[in-house]
Design brief:
CATH class: Alpha Beta
Bound molecules: iron/sulfur cluster
Largest sheet: 7 strands, parallel
Helix content: 40-55%
Strand content: 5-15%
Strand order of the largest sheet: 2-3-4-5-6-7-8
Distance between the termini: 50 Å
Mean pLDDT: 93
Number of domains: 1
Amino acid sequence: MNFFIQRSKLRDLYDKVVAGERISEADALRLFETKDLNALGAIADFVRQRKVGNRASFIINRYINYSNYCILSCQFCSFARKKRDADGFELTVPQIVEKASEALKLGITELHIVGGLHPSLPFSYYLEMLKALKNLDARLQLKCFTAIEILHLAWLAKKSVEQTLVELKAAGLDSLTGGGAEIFQPDVRRTIAKGKESAAEYLDVHRTWHKLGGRSTCTMLYGHVESLADRVDHLRQLRALQDETSGFTGFIPLAYHPENNDIPVKTPPTGFDSLRTIAVSRIYLDNFPHVTAYWIGLGMKLAQVALSYGADDIHGTIIEEHIFHMAGANSPQLQTETDMIKAIRETGLTPVQRNTFYEPIKVLADATASEPAENPAHSKVLEDNLATA
Ligand code: SF4
């Protein structure tokens, strides 16, 4: 048994987890409230090891925001703009295809595409975008749209959510993103994202997608005005839906960034808070295969440490990120494949390149034989991003 657990007041919860018993919401709150981060991390690391063994994954992907115009004005959001704003943007389908085409040279397997709720783009724009990207390369996996975007598209199309998802799937949609969950507790949700869909609506979009055979991830935005009990309640609702559908491939906790918005939290999530949130999530969400340490929000150094606190994935190369950087994230715009492999390998875990569904593409078990050479196209894209930033 781990040294830290032997001496810890969390020993009873460790015994419960080892016995394969599900922890309760009261147990999860107790874990959130503990100051014994070493013992909490050891329990989460035990669960991670039991789930995925000695592996940790990453994906070679590219983010594209098709537009930051949005008809809503969520108080916490630093990304959305109105048509009158000078720094608003929208991309045509050919511009999106060009970005995707450039990124294919880096070996990406996934495009992650989200935007605001655009005031005038028609439903056909979104279908054309998906079809054009699949035409570019049918192997490219398209992870697109948050739940609120799906509700917006259903409204545009004047169709049910189910029929909207059916048509998006037929056009090439492979996975929904998990964005927009924020915190489900209604008072907190009203405070940070008035006008956004309710928790029930968010969950119902994912439920409908899962029942169509689709898969998605889900998120929790933590470290603003919510309480620890609100976080437990959020996780409870995600675990319940996963019990029902088994459609979530992974959970991605998102650390709140407070700049350029109307919720100026004085103390955004600390390293301690992020590690305990990842650890409690890993222990409580016993029906989730994967927990991701999102390096854009955490910084790569803390994401790497999170691999010893329950996370088994450090997300992707990303290449161009707007949402967190407009909220003050000072992480870089991209990680190279080589840097991600190095970060994982240093923790003693075996790096695995994965696809959108967390399925392995390449296991990099041997440090000497299979280390990929630095791709010169990465620095070219980084230079281009800096030039246009
Ligand atoms: S969080 Fe999403 S829905 Fe809300 S204002 Fe920002 S872009 Fe719009």
